[in-house]
Every structure is written in structure tokens, then in C-alpha cells.
Amino acid sequence: MAYVSPTKRDQNGSYTFSSRPRPVEDRSKYREAPSEQTQSNYGNIMYDRRVIRGNTYAQQIIPTTALPDPVEVQRQQEIRRRNVAAKRAREQCRTRTPEALQGRKHIDVQTDLYLEELSDVIVASDIECQTDAFLDKPATPLFIPAKSGKDVETQIEEGELFDFDREVPALLEVLVGKTVEQSLEEVMEEEELAGLRAQQRAFRELRNNELEEVLRLKEQERRRSKEKERRVAQQKEMLRKEREVAEKIAARAFTQQYLADLLPAVFTSLRSHGYFYDPVENDIETNFFPWLMAEVNNSLEKRYTARALLDTIIDDVAQKRQEAFKDTQ
Amino acid sequence: MAGSPYDPSRAPVAYGRRAVPQLFSELQQQEAPRRVRALASLCDLLRDPERISCTVSGGFLEQLKVLLKDEDSIVRAKTCELLHLLTAHRIGRQALLSSSFLPHLSELMDDSSSSCRRNVQRVLNRLTLMPAGAEALLTLVPKLMLKLREEEEDVQVLLLSTLSSCSCLDPLPALASDGVSLLLHKLSDSSTDIRREAAAALMALSVCEDGMRQVCEKEVLPVLVNLLRDEDVEVQANAAGVIMYAAITNEGKQQCLDLDVIPILLSLVSQDGEEEKDKERKKALVMYSLRALTALAEAPQGRCLLLEQLPLLGRRSEAAEEDQDIRRNAQNAVRVITWTPCNTGDL
């Protein structure tokens, strides 16, 4: 009992018990009186908290609260304090036997009908028992049951179980058959593949053939169309040149014709504008004639003045004559 | 036989429907030898088309993708072999394409183990049997061309075959990665297979204008004329094919006439000394040579030469010729040779 930790009341009032593992103590058959140190409180089972009350089908699960309600805590503490106080009160109120008088001692007395001897020493007797040592046992005799039934024997002669000529063909057939089957499969596979390849090759040959024709014709077409274009371009060029030449010729002819009487016309006009002149004639014209004319003018002037003078004279004379006539009248 | 307990190199095979799923769950084991054995058994099983459809519909292909990145090279090589068997059938090929195996396979092309690389090339080669496969592989063409320089002979044959199938669909990627010079180098290789495949790839490349131009520029024609005299019929046929495409352009015609290729082509077309069984194999050769002659007849020098040889071609174009295609080609050739401007209606 030395290793029992004191029973604690958990905060919720549930009961916990824990003790370290200890070997079982060997106790004497009859227990001794419990020592004063034990704290086990034997209570009424009806009021033992360890016993579950009520309906166990819906058991109350202990709520796992991290921090218990302070109100709860206080209430528990109060209950505890009250219990302790009540217990102490009960102890105090309990009537006890009065103390023995001086010089006297209380002793226990049995008041039953039949007296019992009370002693601490329990009468015990030890009895031992031991089996005898094992004796050497002789070997058990062989159990041979009594003979019953008939004796029969049999023997397999050579060649009876296994007839080579009959068994082996079957085995051989299977072996050879499997091998041949496997090889046939492989050969068929290879043949199939070879057939595939041959077909592909034949197709490829034909395809190459036709493809070459297509490409050659395409190239031919390209060449011919290029050639055609070149020829057409050449022809166009040629036409253009011809047209140019024709235009040039026409222009030349027209110009020639236009300019045919240019020369006489030019000469005529130049001549008419006096660019070609006979220098003597010109000289005569420019120098001589003006002088001549001037001289002519002069002489004519003179004549005119003479005539005018004459006129005036005549006039004068006429006047005078007139006057003279008038006078005479 | 798969699954026999006496064969230590193969894992045991469950019965019937459980065979394939059980082997695939075996493939998830940690130890590499067990995986190798399971893969060996699967290789044996997957020759059967029903097993293949079971594999594809059971969705086990994702597991194979994981195995492709395994550390053990034998596991990787065996997985590629398994994929190779898958591609033998249409279901397998379609499943491979739709599950996007190509990025993983292209990573594996750089693998360290040569058997793994060889198997990857086999897978890619088989994928080109489908046009969708060839189309999907077009993105890998530059990488394949890189690999062409490095790998060994038999892998090169596979690579070239894959390249020619892809280029039949679209020659531009291969041309962009400088395919013509690379293939020119391969044309003079000592192995017949490589020459044949290289010539076939070149023929696929020279279909477009750019290819024709490059073939003329890079002096490929002299090598091809040499190949016309090769022993193998298919090499000759493929070389004639390239020449027929190259002779479409003016430059090509000029180069061919300079190289004096017409007599060689005529000797190929002529019928003397041909046996029955050879006719089948030589059909492609005769067809391509006739087409090449037709193309060369458009040049004036070629026409002069060929006008003299009309009887030879006439023999081929008669009704005596059994093969319809050859007859048609020969008639076409004769028509082009004897064309005069007043013959045509248009122009």
C-alpha cells in the first residue's frame, strides 16, 4: 500500500485512482487488522460516486472543458468545505464513552451467550505435500493388434506402367506441335510483314512513276508558259518598235512637207522685211534720196516762197490796182 | 518453349487468360534477372495476335514505358524487342502511337548498349508501315540523320529505310538537315543494302523542287550514273529513280546529257537477254529508265540522240509488251520524242 497515490477528487468531482505497478505482496491467509494509516473510506455503495447511476444507454459523457467554469469550481470547493465541516461536526457530536476513573481501566467484555477466545495469534498449521520422484519407466511394448483380414500382395512388372511406344507419341506431339505452332506463327507474321512491305513497295513504284510524270508535265508546262510569255513580250516589244518607227516616218514626212516651202517663204519674208538688200540701192535710198528730197524740198520751198512772194506782190499789185480802180471810179 | 520449368531463361507462364497479366505483374519485381526471364517469356507469347490485343486492352503498355528507363541494359533491350513484336500487328502499332512512346524511344536512341539501339531502330522501322507512324516520326528525322553518321552497318540500313519512308510523306525535314550530302556519302558505301536504301531515300527527297536543285548542285549525278551499272537490280532502279526526278529541271537535264547517261538508260530498257523471272524484279528499273528518257527527250540534244533510237522504244511500246505500265511509259516516251510544235492543240 506504500505506493498508492492519494485518491484525489477531480475537479468535476469524478474519482481518480492511480498506483504504480507493484508486485503482489505475499499475505498471510487471514488479514491483519487494518493499520491506522489507511485512508480508505468505506462508504455506502449507494452513495459511491464510482457506481454509475441511472440509465446507462445514454451515458453522460464527461465534458472536457479546458478551464472549468469558475462558478463550478467555487461551488465544488464550497461543497467540499461543507462536507468536511459536517464531518467534523458529526465527529464532535458523537457521544463517546466517558473516560475511565482514576486507577481504573476500561476493558472489553464479551456479552454474548457463548464466549469466544479472542487472540491475535491465529492457530495455523502447515501441511506439506510432495509427489514421489519419477521412477524409471520401462519402454512401452510395441502394440501389435491382432491380425485380421486377408493378406493380398501385388507387384508391378517392367513395362506395365509405362509403355514407351504408347505414351511418348502423345508427349512428342504436344512438344513438337507447340514448337511448330510457335514457329508457324512467327513465319506467318514475317510473311505478313513481307507482304505488307511488298505491297508498299509496289505502291511506291507506281506512285513514283505517276509522280514523276506529274512533275515532268508540271515543269514542262512551266517552261512552255514561260516561253509563251517571253514570246508574247517579245512580240509586244516588236509591235511597239514598229509603231514607233512608223510614227517617226510619218513625222518626218509631215515635217518635210511642212518645211518644203519654208525656205522660199523665209526668203520672201526676209526679203520683204528688207534683210536682203542691194547695198548700192540701199545707199542710194538712205543717203542719196533724202538729200535729193531735201534739196527738192528746198528748191520747192524756194519756189514756194518765190511764189508766195509773187502772190503777195500780185496781191499787192491787185490791191493797189483795185484801189486805184476804186479811186478812178 | 515458353514457361517450361526446364528452361532457365524463361519465367513460367500461367494458363490461358492469366498468362499475360501474370507475366506483367512479374515484371514489377525488384530483381533484374526475374524481369529478364519474364520479358523473354512475353516475347515468346506476343507472337500471337490475340495476346497482343490482350496486352493492349489490358493497359500494360504504361508498365513497358517504365521498363524502358530501367537501369539494366538487358531489360531495356528486351523491352525494345517486345515493342518490336508489338509493332508486327496493326493493333500494336496503333497502341504505340497513341500511348506516346516516341519521346521515350527517341531517348533510347542514345542508349549505351548497341543491341538496345538496334532494337529501337527496328521498332521505328516497323512503325513506318503505317502512314500515321511515318507522320509521327517526321519530328524525329533530324535526330535520325545525326544517328546515321555514327551507327553500325545493319542499324544504318534500318535508319535509311525509316528515313525513306518518312521522306515519302514529307521530304522537307530531311532536306533541312542536309540530307542530300549525307546520302551522297552513303551512296558509295561498300554494302549493297546501304546503297539501295540510300538511293531510295534520295529518290524520296528529290521529289520536291528544293531536293531536285540540291541533287544537281551537289554533284550527286555522277555517283548515280555509276550506280546505274551496279550489280543489284534494286540499286539500279533507285538510282534511275533519282535521275528521273533530277532530269525534270533544266539543270539536271544538262548535267545528265553532259554525263552521257542516255546510252546507259537505253541499255537498261532494251529487252535483249531478259529472262522471265527477271522481268518482275526489273519492272521498276525499266519504268524509271523510260521516265528518265522521257524527261531527257525534252532537251534538244537528248531529242536528237533519241530520235535515232526510236525503234528500240517502239518495240517496248507495242502490244507485245505484257506489262501495261511499261507499255504506257514507252508510248509516252515515243510521243514526247516525236513531239513537234504543230502537233499540239494548245499553245
TrEMBL record, chain A:
Pfam families reported in the protein's UniProt record: Radial_spoke_3
Compositional bias ranges of the Basic and acidic residues kind: 22-34
Coiled coil: 208-245
Region: Disordered, residue numbers: 1-42
Protein name: Radial spoke head 3
Origin species: Champsocephalus gunnari
Keyword entries, A-Z: Cell projection, Cilium, Coiled coil, Cytoplasm, Cytoskeleton, Flagellum, Phosphoprotein
GO cellular component: cilium
Family: Belongs to the flagellar radial spoke RSP3 family.
Main location group: cytoplasm
Location(s) in or outside the cell: Cytoplasm, Cytoskeleton, Flagellum axoneme
Presence of the UniProt keyword Coiled coil in the record: yes
Automatic annotation (TrEMBL), chain B:
Signal peptide (from-to): none
A matching Pfam family: Arm
Location of the Condensin complex subunit 1 C-terminal domain: 60-165
InterPro entries per record: ARM-like, ARM-type_fold, Armadillo, Cnd1_C, RSP14
Xref: SUPFAM superfamilies: ARM repeat
PANTHER family referenced in this protein's UniProt entry, alphabetically: RADIAL SPOKE HEAD 14 HOMOLOG, RTDR1
Protein name: Condensin complex subunit 1 C-terminal domain-containing protein
Organism the protein comes from: Champsocephalus gunnari (Mackerel icefish)
